[in-house]
Amino acid sequence: MQSVDQYYPASGRVILHVDMNAFYCSVHEAEDPEQYKGKATAVAGSVEARRGIIVTCSYAARRLGISTGMQVQKALRICPSLMLIKPDFHLYRKYSNAFMQIAYSYTPLLEAVSIDECYLDITGSRQFGTPPEIAEAIQRRILEELGLPCSIGIAPNKLLAKIASDLKKPSGISVLRLRDVPTVLWDKPCNEMFGIGGKTAEKLRKLGIYSIGQLAAADEAMLVGHFGVMGAWLKRAGNGIDHGIVNPQREQSKSIGHTTTLPHDVVGLAEARPILLNLSDQVARRLRKQGLVAAGVQLTIRTPDMKTITRSRQLEAPTESAEDIYKVACDQFARHWKGDKPVRLLGVTLQGLMPKEESAIQLDLFDYERQPKKESLNKAMDMLRNKFGENAVLTAGMLSDSHSARLRNHKERGTSLQKDNLGGADKDID
Predict the structure, then answer these.
(1) Taking Cα atoms as reference points, which of 265, 367, 260 lies closest to residue 324?
(2) What EC number(s) does its UniProt record assign (predicted)?
């Protein structure tokens, strides 16, 4: 009979990666098994208009050819009986908290990396049994208590635990040791290694590196020369080596807000618009910097006699976009403030914050096609501001009428503005 101790190394760690299977669809199935159990389902916004994209789908739908990121219209052509479900983020968070509480009961070293997955360091949890026994207990309890399936990877580090949890889905438990890496991973293409995306894999192919085994054998200096510090990580990853630790979950910001006291009273939405756009841009930038999205927007208005009102609105889906935040702020201003009443202070606060990877940002078809460009533009603008200051990039809407006029005059004369030239930035980015 094998002892518990042999599973726990004298040095090193034992890591579990718990990955919920088709989480959003599984939650709806657990809530209403009579309607959804075993059915081809998909979570997607814009259900009534049959636009947008598939956020996730059940395994029954996947077997029919439906996949995450597919356009809803295409999915319905493949499977006309596909059951579309609108996202319910409150419900998902409830189930997420519940399954993580089960996992937490086996170790306080829990790192939640998204709404449906977490790492556990169970090196000090031998009182609960061997790692496979702990994994089986967690998996069984999540299924029995919550009605949710999950896959679990067991490994000496986070990288291999993540890879192991993907080996058997749904409802699998896999062990991946360092000595298993050559036989399990080395014949696979590089893009199947967690952390290596399509662009990196393409660069590796141009260097003659097609498989994880070839990556493991590659010269580290050469990799560093082409990929910088990431080159050393690539070499380690190819050999299954990862020094990352499991960081217990930290409390995140509950809100992000910014207010500005105006140099003179503002009257009406037309005068408020450039200020609201500036505020929306600033809070959106802080949001992206923390890797978060917001589910609600609050507008703050203060009058010259110091009377303050706040008005909040929930969004249809979480966002990191200044454009979305600005639209809501303007709408709240128009709805709740008379045009002839002066305003001395304005503020925009983002509420209902969550990590971006936990959210299912729903896009219609047009936004889905534009999203990569929008994200690239946001990253470029954020980078410029980090380097040159907040005023390095301004949109025309942030400027006063006189400043906008000067901008147009400069452009007509063919001169360049060092700061207020978003048009120039667009050209450079493209």
Answers:
(1) 367
(2) 2.7.7.7
Which pairs count as long-range contacts for 188-197, CB under 8 Å and 24+ apart, including other chains? 188/212, 190/215, 193/163, 193/237, 193/238, 194/159, 194/162, 194/163, 194/166, 195/159, 195/233, 195/237, 196/234, 196/237
Give the pLDDT of residue 172: 96
Distances (CA, A) of 387 to 28, 177, 228: 45, 43, 20
Phi, psi of 380 (to 5 degrees): -65, -45
List the structure tokens of 377: 């533009």
125 touches 103 (CB < 8 A): no
Annotated binding-site members: 19, 116
| Residue (of 313, 315, 352) closest to 333 by Cα position | 313
Token couple for 93: 């968070």
Q: Which residues are annotated as a binding site for Mg(2+)?
A: 19, 116
Q: Is 384 helix (H, G, I), strand (E, B) or coil?
A: helix
Answer positive or negative: Cα dihedral of 201, 207, 210, 215: negative
Confidence at residue 239, expressed as pLDDT on a 0 to 100 scale: 96
| Angstrom distance (rounded) from CA 276 to CA 258 | 10
Give the tokens for residue 372.
């990569």
Residues 94-109 have pLDDT tens digits of 999 999 999 999 999 9
CA distance 55 to 84: 10
Low-confidence ranges of the chain (pLDDT < 70): 1-11, 45-51, 249-253, 357-430
Are 232 and 216 in contact by the 8 Å Cβ rule? The answer is no
Verify whether residue 34 is a known catalytic residue: no
> How many other C-beta atoms lie within 10 A of the C-beta of residue 419?
12
Helices (H), 147-210: 158-165, 181-184, 198-206
SS3 258: strand
Cα distances (Å, whole numbers) of residue 360 to 68, 69, 117, 149, 195: 11, 11, 15, 20, 20
Which residue in 117, 192, 323, 390 is the catalytic one? 117
Judge whether 205 and 226 are in contact, CB under 8 Å: no
